[in-house]
TrEMBL record:
Annotated organism of origin: Acanthamoeba castellanii (strain ATCC 30010 / Neff)
GO biological process: ribosomal large subunit biogenesis
Top-level taxon in the UniProt lineage: Eukaryota
Regions annotated as coiled coil: none
One Gene Ontology term, aspect cellular component: preribosome, large subunit precursor
Protein name: WD repeatcontaining protein 74, putative
InterPro entries reported for this sequence: Quinoprotein_ADH-like_sf, WD40/YVTN_repeat-like_dom_sf, WD40_rpt, WDR74/Nsa1
Length: 343
């Protein structure tokens, strides 16, 4: 298997998990090694804010860089096969991409959102263009833009089957936005007031569409809340709970292949699997120091990879009661990890 990492200094690193063969030809132990590193320079101007796998394109990732740049990169060759520069990108300190993604309903297009609340649709060319080219760079352009709110956006995901985006942030509750025109088609309603009759504060830090039904969206917050919304059922969450064992702000979430199980990380180095049916911890992954920046399931669902502020990449087994640490690699720089590929 292969993990693809993006660093704060602009590098893309590819890590392979390989199984060595023994002398008799049988399969031996798995080992992790950095196989390639792409990027000529390391500078703040090359900083990568976010990275996602390029939908429908083998060995390609989509990155959002500083300065409003969106690039499609082939991680096998290091070649940049698509590039877009947003001429109206925000320039204030702290303004950056929240996420940039592609989807099946948007071939050769990328949708991105800034922390400022501004969204853009980028085109890498006609749908007939060969975006999988290994040598030609398709210089695209921003074809649509819209601004929804001035409140800080902290979470963004594209709907897997419909031209919609899910957004949330600090003071911005979950909402669905039509990518074609920028109109809000659904907005979550805050939970009832607390026992002092005060509004419950809103701080969406990450979200994900559940695999069984894209109308169900799982959300984690900076106030250590776990919520699941059903867009077709109601505006308030259908599942809403907290865990006493995890009193810290959640930083990331990823749904598993099982629609009843999600994995999440917090700002104190905890990675856990949660069973949404009984609202309990299914598995706990130990040994991480510092905030968890990103987590992802392996392609077979038997492993979880986590990148944290301590600059280590860790691969855990999801099997058994102990959730053993299988591999640990020092990455030298702070990274995001969002993509697993079969080698």
């Amino acid at each position: 298997m292969r993990a693809i990492l993006a660093t704060d200094t602009g590098l893309i690193k590819v890590v392979d998990v390989v199984r060595e063969k023994t002398e008799d030809g049988s399969a031996g132990e798995e080992k992790v090694a950095f196989t390639t590193q792409w990027g000529a320079t390391q500078a703040k101007s090359e900083e990568i804010h976010c990275m996602r796998a390029y939908h429908g394109q083998k060995d390609q990732v989509l990155v959002g860089r500083a300065g409003g740049r969106v690039e499609a990169i082939n991680v096998s060759t290091g070649v940049k096969v698509g590039s877009v520069v947003d001429p109206k990108a925000p320039t204030k300190l702290g303004d950056k991409w929240v996420g940039v993604e592609t989807a099946a309903w948007a071939p050769n297009r990328a949708v991105g959102w800034y922390t400022t609340g501004r969204g853009v649709v980028c085109s890498f060319g006609d749908d007939e263009n060969d975006v999988d080219s290994k040598t030609v760079v398709h210089n695209g352009s921003v074809v649509k833009e819209f601004a929804l709110t001035t409140a800080p956006i902290g979470a963004f995901r594209l709907h897997p089957t419909a031209p919609q985006a899910a957004l949330g942030g600090k003071g911005v509750d979950l909402r669905l936005v039509e990518v074609e025109n920028g109109k809000q088609v659904w907005t979550a309603k805050n939970v009832p007031n607390d026992f002092l009759d005060m509004p419950v504060p809103v701080w969406v830090t990450d979200l994900g569409f559940l695999p069984d039904d894209p109308r169900r969206i799982a959300v984690v917050t900076g106030y250590h809340q776990i919520r699941v919304y059903d867009v077709k059922a109601q505006r308030r969450p259908t599942i809403d709970f907290e865990l006493k064992q995890l009193p810290h702000a959640f930083s990331c979430i990823v749904p598993s292949a099982d629609p009843n199980v999600i994995a999440l990380g917090d700002t104190h180095g905890n990675v856990v699997e949660i069973d949404l049916r009984n609202k309990n911890i299914k598995g706990l992954y130990r040994g991480i120091a510092g905030s968890v920046r990103s987590i992802a399931y392996g392609p077979d669902g038997k492993t979880i990879v986590a990148a944290s502020l301590d600059r280590f990449l860790r691969v855990f087994s999801t099997a058994g009661p102990l959730r053993k640490l299988q591999h640990k690699v020092h990455k030298h720089t702070h990274t995001h990890t969002r993509a697993w590929r079969r080698s």
